[in-house]
């Protein structure tokens, strides 16, 4: 998706979706979509940010960055120095690969990518995935912040600053303190949280990855063994706090199907699978949010009354879209419908972080804020869905043939739109130069749901608005400074 020209025309969404000229208008006014698969625009040569001051760092699980600060270890022993020298003397191919895998940018980046791979492998999706990613990235965030806080306070020189026999690998700052190891802290937190979030994974799988990631820092000349041990312990302790919060967030509450309303206008199982029970999401509105006071804080007005003129107008709009669907609308509906919103925004954010050379603490904060916003937006959206239980368009007009399978839960408001609105708002805040482009992507992603025939237009409008509201709440948190201003 290329960046819009400052003079590119902007069109009314209602005009586009209700017009037979929608395809032509999209070609003229929108980025070359599908967009989402193309790199986002960003300045190509930003510098690595200087070490930020610990003042103002916020945390999600810790009461303060120094809550779990380890005791200062004193100077490294000669045995530790020798171990680093030995690790660098004859590195194996596996060691070299591990250094590259786990140290390509800020410590959280490789683990963020791993979360996508694991969730795909174990088929974790929907609201469960958004909860997963918020718990996970907030734990990684606190691990980074706690490690940097301790490094600044203890100021133990790293290996390359201790012995001239040690050469730092590419990307390792020889001037940074090394105790405790940031990469080990992130690895310890990640492994602990993943073991909880993915109980079907082989025992010890994530611990082995954490050990590989942490120990690769020895051969990279970035950490002593005592730095690694302290980092892993710190990360594990933070991961345990994240797991404790997750166990108490209400996501395991059992829903009583007998409470589901029935009758005209209420949700019914939809084709093609006619799933009778709408998963466990009916209680999602009561899950513990991250920044919202409750799932009701941004709850919208009720949907149009069933059978009213406004309701009939919404149904007619979907019918007209289906009857006059342009090639461009169909292509957009299928592209977005087969794209995972969490993976999209995660990838966009990581790409921008890399291009901007963002420092590790802010990179961790951007990713945590991104996934917190999406998680809270969906708590709010699903709380609204199961307040009104609005039937899908295909229920009211069985002659409709949606381009995508209709999700097995109520229509109003749209969850996909909410997630995209929240995620793109946070990305646009941290990277202002792509804010307009992100807004356009969210707009098209939301509009595509009605184009696909799985939502009313009002579902998309309201879901997008809710997501953006939550995104702005997250962006208003302390120290959520745009990268331009860092």
UniProtKB/TrEMBL annotation:
Keyword annotations from UniProtKB, A to Z: Signal
Q: Which SMART domains match?
A: acidPPc
- Domain of life of the organism encoding this protein: Bacteria
Q: Where is the signal peptide?
A: 1-24
Region feature (Disordered): 38-58
- What region holds the Phosphatidic acid phosphatase type 2/haloperoxidase domain? 134-243, 364-475
The question of whether Lipid biosynthesis is a record keyword is answered with no
Annotated Pfam families = PAP2
Stored InterPro entries = Br/Cl_peroxidase_C, PAP2/HPO, PAP2/HPO_sf, TAT_signal, V-haloperoxidase
Which GO terms of the molecular function aspect are on file? Answer: peroxidase activity
Full protein name: Phosphatidic acid phosphatase type 2/haloperoxidase domain-containing protein
What taxonomic lineage is listed for the species of origin? Bacteria, Pseudomonadati, Thermomicrobiota, Thermomicrobia, Thermomicrobiales
């Amino acid at each position: 998706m290329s960046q819009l020209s400052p003079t590119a025309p902007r069109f009314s969404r209602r005009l586009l979706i209700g017009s037979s000229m929608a395809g032509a208008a999209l070609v003229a006014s929108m980025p070359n979509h599908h967009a989402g698969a193309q790199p986002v625009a960003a300045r190509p040569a930003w510098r690595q940010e200087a070490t930020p001051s610990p003042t103002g760092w916020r945390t999600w699980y810790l009461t303060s960055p120094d809550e779990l600060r380890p005791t200062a270890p004193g100077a490294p022993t000669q045995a530790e120095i020798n171990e680093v020298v030995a690790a660098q003397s004859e590195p194996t191919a596996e060691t070299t690969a591990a250094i590259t895998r786990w140290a390509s940018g800020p410590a959280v980046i490789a683990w963020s990518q791993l979360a996508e791979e694991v969730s795909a492998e174990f088929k974790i999706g929907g609201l469960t995935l958004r909860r997963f990613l918020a718990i996970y990235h907030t734990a990684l965030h606190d691990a980074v912040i706690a490690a940097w806080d301790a490094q600044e306070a203890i100021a133990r020189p790293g290996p390359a600053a201790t012995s001239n026999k040690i050469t730092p690998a590419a990307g390792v700052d020889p001037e940074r303190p090394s105790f405790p190891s940031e990469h080990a802290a992130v690895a310890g937190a990640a492994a602990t949280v993943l073991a909880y979030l993915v109980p079907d994974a082989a025992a010890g799988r994530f611990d082995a990855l954490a050990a590989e990631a942490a120990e690769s820092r020895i051969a990279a000349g970035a950490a002593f063994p005592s730095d690694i041990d302290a980092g892993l312990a710190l990360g594990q302790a933070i991961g345990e706090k994240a797991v404790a919060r997750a166990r108490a967030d209400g996501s395991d509450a059992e829903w009583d199907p007998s409470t589901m309303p029935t009758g005209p206008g209420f949700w019914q199982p939809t084709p093609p699978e006619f799933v009778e029970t709408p998963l466990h999401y009916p209680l999602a509105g009561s899950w513990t949010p991250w920044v919202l006071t409750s799932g009701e804080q941004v709850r919208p007005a009720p949907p149009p009354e069933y059978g009213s003129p406004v309701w009939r107008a919404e149904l007619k709009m979907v019918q007209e879209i289906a009857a006059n669907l342009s090639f461009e609308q169909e292509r957009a509906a299928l592209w977005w419908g087969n794209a995972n919103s969490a993976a999209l925004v995660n990838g966009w954010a990581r790409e921008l972080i890399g291009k901007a050379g963002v420092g590790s603490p802010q990179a961790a904060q951007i990713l945590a804020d991104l996934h917190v916003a999406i998680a809270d937006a969906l708590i709010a959206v699903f709380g609204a869905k199961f307040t009104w239980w609005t039937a899908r368009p295909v229920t009211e007009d069985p002659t409709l043939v949606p381009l995508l399978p209709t999700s097995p839960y109520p229509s109003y408001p749209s969850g996909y739109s909410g997630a995209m609105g929240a995620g793109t708002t946070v990305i646009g805040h941290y990277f202002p130069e792509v804010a307009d482009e992100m807004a356009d992507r969210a707009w098209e992603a939301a509009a595509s749901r009605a184009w696909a025939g799985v939502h009313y237009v009002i579902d998309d409008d309201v879901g997008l608005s809710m997501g953006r509201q939550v995104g702005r709440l997250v962006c208003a948190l302390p120290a959520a400074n745009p990268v331009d201003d860092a």
